[in-house]
């Protein structure tokens, strides 16, 4: 199973992975019945979660909705610390995660728009460097684990800021290595195998360090550094299988 997941991630195009994942989850689910772990996104319990990742992580992928540690953390944060699930508004969801897509789409109080370069789930297809939408349109932009893939992340940050309404908020989480003081990137590294060595994945262009919130501020955001994970009990973090460390950066377009 672990070898199969790793091979699929390396060799199968992302649009095809998205289509295959629904069938995969339906087939594998009965083998993981139990009550040791709980997914707050789909409200399902299992004896354990599936392994996931090119650099394998055990017990992290929900067999039902395919949420990972970061998705479950974001869901809990939005549910407990924001008005996302109650306040009317317009939402732009970039690179929509499967575990969120259907659930957000069912929310009657939001106008939910999805976008991606190629995902079959997206309503709109465009390059984030030049978003073909008018400014000041959205109350929320959700764009998680995307900025490490783009050529010019600062340009993308400015484009996301542009389409937010004044006071609008964005969740722009990235894989962040807290051992790096400064983000590591080198545009001269173009070979996919070299990128995997340097940045952890073949399609990653950088490893974000502790200067990440400052990059967001330079783009024009007001950034609130939220330590939500630390508010949860150790037994909750283990049962939900949340990240060992991940601060949440809530970005807001100044009013």
* Unreliable runs: none
Category from helices, strands and their pairing: alpha/beta
CATH evolutionary superfamily of the largest domain: Vaccinia Virus protein VP39
Average pLDDT, all residues: 91
Distance between the termini: 49 Å
Return the string of H and E elements: HHEEEEHEHEEEHEEHEHEHE
CATH class of the largest domain: Alpha Beta
**Known CATH architecture of the largest domain:** 3-Layer(aba) Sandwich
Number of strands: 13
Side-by-side strand order of the widest sheet: 7-6-5-8-9-13-12
Instruction: Using the CA coordinates, give the radius of gyration.
Output: 18 Å
User: In this structure, how is the largest beta sheet organized?
Assistant: 7 strands, mixed
Into which percent range does the helicity of residues fall? Answer: 25-40%
Put simply, the count of helices is 8
Indicate how many domains the architecture comprises: 2
CATH topology name of the largest domain:
Rossmann fold
Q: Which outline best applies?
A: globular
Task: Describe the protein.
This protein has 255 residues and is α/β, with parallel strands linked by helices. The chain folds into two domains: 66 residues, no CATH class; 183 residues, Rossmann fold (3-Layer(aba) Sandwich), CATH 3.40.50.150. The chain has eight helices and 13 strands. It has a seven-stranded mixed sheet. The protein has a two-stranded antiparallel sheet with strand order 1-2. Strand 3 and strand 4 form a beta hairpin. The longest helix is centred in the N-terminal third of the chain and has 15 residues.
């Amino acid at each position: 199973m672990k070898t199969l997941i790793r091979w699929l991630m390396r060799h199968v195009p992302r649009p095809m992975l998205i289509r295959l994942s629904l069938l995969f989850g339906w087939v594998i689910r009965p083998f993981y019945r139990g009550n040791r772990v709980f997914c707050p996104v789909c409200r399902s319990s299992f004896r354990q979660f599936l392994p996931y990742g090119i650099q394998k992580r055990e017990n992290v992928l929900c067999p039902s909705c395919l949420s990972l540690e970061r998705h479950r953390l974001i869901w809990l944060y939005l549910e407990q610390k924001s008005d996302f699930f109650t306040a009317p508004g317009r939402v732009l969801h970039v690179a929509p995660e499967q575990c969120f897509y259907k659930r957000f789409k069912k929310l009657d109080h939001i106008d939910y728009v999805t976008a991606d370069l190629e995902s079959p789930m997206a309503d709109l297809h465009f390059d984030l460097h030049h978003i073909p939408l008018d400014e000041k349109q959205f109350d929320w932009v959700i764009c998680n684990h995307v900025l490490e893939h783009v050529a010019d992340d600062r340009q993308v940050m400015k484009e996301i800021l542009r389409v937010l309404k004044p006071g609008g908020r964005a969740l722009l989480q990235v894989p962040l290595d807290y051992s790096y003081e400064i983000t590591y990137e080198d545009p001269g590294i173009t070979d996919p195998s070299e990128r995997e060595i340097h940045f952890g994945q073949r399609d990653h262009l950088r490893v974000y360090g502790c200067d990440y919130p400052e990059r967001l501020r330079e783009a024009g955001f007001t950034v609130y550094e939220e330590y939500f994970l630390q508010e949860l009990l150790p037994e909750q973090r283990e049962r939900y299988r949340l990240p060992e460390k991940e601060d949440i950066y809530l970005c807001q377009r100044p009013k």
